[in-house]
Amino acid sequence: MSHREREKTPSIATLCLLLPRCVPREKVQAVDDEWRSLPLLSADFPDDLKSIQEADKFWHALLTYKTEYGEQPFKALPAL
Fold it and tell me: Which domain of life does the UniProt lineage start with (predicted)?
């Protein structure tokens, strides 16, 4: 999603609620939190992650991504 569109619609929760088979209600907040943090943390992504063009490969790489502190900030969002 473009930065301009994110400014108008920063939350993905509405979409998640429309797709209850994809996102269980109890996971909507976790998915939305990760969605909102994605642009903030993307500046620290390694170049190989930033350069991935295929959506499925990007989301898989995001699922396995770890910060320099060994944390996995994206567990719910890429698992969709």
Answer: Eukaryota
